[in-house]
């Protein structure tokens, strides 16, 4: 902001606009719901600020100076822009919006959160677009702060604490393998479980140890993990076409007719899925609408 504007009471510009419309102090005062002496004092301050009389007495009211005429249109545009900037936010109308939403999610949350939301989003806000990206947990908070992403979906164990959050649902693990798997006709014993060939999802890549192995280690036991993959989609396909088994989140295999699901013989701690967003968009009506749509969908 330049030094001249810092020295000016912006209310004086509203008064100047009224004076340039009315060409009369009394009528300008009535338009502004102010007293005539108050407007006269403000006119004197405006003259001092601009170094110009601005309005001169004439036979039919006051006549604007050349300087005042030059101010007329820029002043009107500036006040209109300022009024728009400070006006209350308009209610969000999803049917008319063409907004692009950017959500950070890995494949599990794509399947369990965004896929159930997509149908409602396309129905209620058909002109909007959704961009799903994968962002490392270490940088999602910065990306959200910069406005590069609107929402983040992640397990509570790695959620950035600096973002606002809402729990969408709690998840638990089940044991899954192909339909007709000879070892999954009923829930296996713990010893049988450990002898099976297991697959594991390792988002960071290549790990053969997960939360199930930590629980087993506390009991002095181990299992056979023979496949490590980065995505749940590949895991589901691998389970359906081999005799591998896996401890998987229950929502991931719900309704999958190619897989057999049984309760595991060992209790593995589950997790919560969070929806996260930055403070900068917390009160945005459009953002609030999207968050509520997602909550309803899942």
Q: What attributes does this structure have?
A:
DNA binding; D-Maltodextrin-Binding Protein, domain 2; 12 strands; three-stranded antiparallel β-sheet; Arc Repressor Mutant, subunit A; DNA-binding transcription factor activity; transcription; 3 domains; 298 residues; rod-shaped; 42% helix; five-stranded mixed β-sheet; alpha/beta
Topology:
Elements: H1 3-6, H2 10-22, H3 25-32, H4 36-50, E1 55-58, E2 61-64, H5 66-86, E3 100-104, H6 107-124, E4 129-133, H7 140-145, E5 151-155, E6 164-171, E7 173-178, H8 190-195, E8 197-201, H9 211-218, E9 224-229, H10 232-241, E10 246-249, H11 250-253, E11 259-262, E12 271-277, H12 285-297
Parallel strand pairs: 3-4, 3-5, 8-9
Antiparallel strand pairs: 1-2, 5-12, 6-12, 7-10, 7-11
Helix pairs in contact: 2-3, 2-4, 2-5, 3-4, 6-12
CATH architectural group of the largest domain: 3-Layer(aba) Sandwich
Radius of gyration: 32 Å
Supply the helix-strand structural class. alpha/beta
CATH topology of the largest domain: D-Maltodextrin-Binding Protein, domain 2
**Order of strands, widest sheet:** 4-3-5-12-6
Distance from N terminus to C terminus (CA atoms, Å) equals 47 Å
């Amino acid at each position: 902001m330049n030094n001249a504007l810092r020295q000016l009471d912006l209310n004086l510009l509203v008064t100047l606009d009224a004076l340039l419309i009315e060409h009369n102090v009394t009528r300008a005062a009535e338009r502004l719901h102010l007293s005539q002496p108050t407007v006269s004092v403000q006119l004197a301050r405006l003259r001092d600020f601009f170094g110009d009389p601005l309005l001169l007495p004439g036979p039919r009211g006051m006549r604007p100076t050349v300087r005042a005429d030059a101010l007329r249109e820029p002043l009107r545009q500036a006040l209109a822009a300022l009024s728009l900037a400070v006006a209350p936010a308009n209610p969000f109308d999803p049917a008319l919006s063409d907004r692009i939403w950017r959500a950070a999610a890995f494949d599990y949350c794509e399947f369990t959160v965004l896929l159930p939301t997509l149908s409602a989003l396309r129905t209620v806000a058909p002109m909007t677009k959704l961009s799903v990206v994968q962002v490392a947990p270490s940088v999602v908070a910065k990306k959200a702060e910069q406005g590069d992403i609107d929402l983040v979906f992640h397990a509570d164990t790695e959620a950035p604490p600096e973002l606002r959050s809402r729990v969408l649902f709690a998840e638990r693990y089940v044991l899954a393998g192909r339909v007709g798997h000879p070892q999954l006709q009923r829930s296996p014993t713990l010893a049988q479980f450990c002898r099976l060939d297991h697959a594991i999802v390792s988002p960071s890549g290549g790990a053969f140890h997960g939360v199930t192995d930590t629980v087993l280690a506390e009991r002095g036991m181990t299992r056979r993990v023979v496949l490590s993959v980065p995505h749940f989609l590949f895991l589901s396909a691998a389970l359906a076409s081999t005799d591998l088994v896996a401890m998987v989140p229950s929502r991931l295999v719900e309704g999958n007719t190619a897989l057999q699901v049984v309760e595991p013989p060992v209790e593995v701690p589950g997790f919560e899925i969070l929806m996260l967003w930055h403070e900068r968009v917390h009160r945005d009506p459009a953002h609030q609408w999207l968050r509520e749509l997602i909550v309803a969908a899942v």
